[in-house]
């Protein structure tokens, strides 16, 4: 595959910068949510094969992939502890394409199928965790959950999202070492994990991925020279006006 000129430009700055939310979580609340996530994770953190068939759903769906998305979205809804803007208030019933923040499109491999291609919950101020079932939404091309209060870890099942192009989890309360799972997402081109509580160094494989900065200005891009950990190429400008 031909590497583009800006192949190693991406957002990947670890930061403990906190943003003042109107509904900020205390550390105790964040660790409570993280421990709830731990209780739900299968032993190895992976999504069991055939999991979708173990879940009873008495509804009719236009296709099996929408049923899988329904299972995932209901699991996500149940992992949310606080939803002050009522974003998930209409996440009921089989018509997942009508859920707030959920976007459907034709399947890439079968234009006769409508599938869930995007999850955009930016700035929803949701507190919760990402359930392992998120790996059922294998048609997702983008996940944008920036500026929420998601806690815990990024589940390993994200690696099942083979079409995922953009992953923006910035400005949440995710913890733990660098989320290695992102290295295994084959089509990932845009990654933003800034403004969380991640710690540690970056895996060298990350620099073999062809990640691009997105979107282009006014969002800042950062350059990470290979093999020297992580650093800003220039002082970090605020991500959003009035954000620091
Ligand atoms: C949240 O949204 C649902 C569906 O739109 C609505 O029925 C419900 O009354 C809303 N709840 C609040 C607290 O606004
Ligand atoms: C989805 O929402 C639209 C607009 O509110 C509505 O017209 C349509 O019937 C809904 N689709 C289903 C299947 O409920």
TrEMBL record:
<dbReference type="Pfam" id="PF08263">
    <property type="entry name" value="LRRNT_2"/>
</dbReference>
<keyword id="KW-0677">Repeat</keyword>
<dbReference type="InterPro" id="IPR032675">
    <property type="entry name" value="LRR_dom_sf"/>
</dbReference>
<protein>
    <recommendedName>
        <fullName>Cell wall hydroxyproline-rich glycoprotein</fullName>
    </recommendedName>
</protein>
<keyword id="KW-0379">Hydroxylation</keyword>
<dbReference type="InterPro" id="IPR013210">
    <property type="entry name" value="LRR_N_plant-typ"/>
</dbReference>
<dbReference type="InterPro" id="IPR051582">
    <property type="entry name" value="LRR_extensin-like_regulator"/>
</dbReference>
<keyword id="KW-0732">Signal</keyword>
<keyword id="KW-0134">Cell wall</keyword>
<dbReference type="InterPro" id="IPR001611">
    <property type="entry name" value="Leu-rich_rpt"/>
</dbReference>
<keyword id="KW-0961">Cell wall biogenesis/degradation</keyword>
<dbReference type="Pfam" id="PF13855">
    <property type="entry name" value="LRR_8"/>
</dbReference>
<keyword id="KW-0325">Glycoprotein</keyword>
<feature type="signal peptide">
    <location>
        <begin position="1"/>
        <end position="24"/>
    </location>
</feature>
<feature type="domain" description="Leucine-rich repeat-containing N-terminal plant-type">
    <location>
        <begin position="72"/>
        <end position="104"/>
    </location>
</feature>
<keyword id="KW-0433">Leucine-rich repeat</keyword>
<keyword id="KW-0964">Secreted</keyword>
<dbReference type="GO" id="GO:0071555">
    <property type="term" value="P:cell wall organization"/>
</dbReference>
């Amino acid at each position: 595959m031909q590497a583009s000129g800006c192949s190693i430009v991406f957002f990947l700055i670890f930061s403990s910068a906190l943003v003042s939310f109107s509904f900020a979580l205390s550390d105790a609340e964040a660790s409570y949510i993280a421990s709830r996530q731990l209780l739900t994770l299968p032993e190895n953190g992976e999504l069991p094969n055939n999991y979708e068939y173990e879940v009873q759903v008495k509804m009719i769906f236009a296709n099996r992939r929408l049923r899988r998305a329904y299972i995932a979205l209901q699991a996500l809804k149940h992992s949310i502890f606080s939803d002050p803007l009522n974003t998930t208030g209409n996440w009921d019933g089989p018509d997942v394409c009508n859920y707030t923040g959920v976007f459907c499109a034709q399947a890439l491999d079968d234009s006769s199928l409508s599938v869930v291609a995007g999850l955009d919950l930016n700035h929803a101020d949701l507190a919760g965790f990402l359930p392992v079932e998120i790996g059922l939404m294998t048609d997702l091309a983008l996940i944008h959950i920036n500026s929420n209060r998601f806690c815990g870890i990024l589940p390993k099942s994200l690696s099942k999202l083979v079409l995922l192009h953009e992953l923006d989890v910035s400005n949440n309360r995710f913890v733990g070492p660098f989320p290695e799972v992102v290295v295994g997402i084959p089509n990932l081109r845009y990654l933003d994990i800034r403004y969380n509580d991640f710690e540690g160094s970056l895996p060298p494989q990350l620099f073999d991925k062809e990640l691009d900065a997105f979107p282009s200005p006014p969002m800042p891009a950062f350059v990470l020279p290979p093999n020297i950990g992580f650093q800003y190429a220039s002082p970090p400008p605020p991500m959003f006006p009035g954000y620091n």
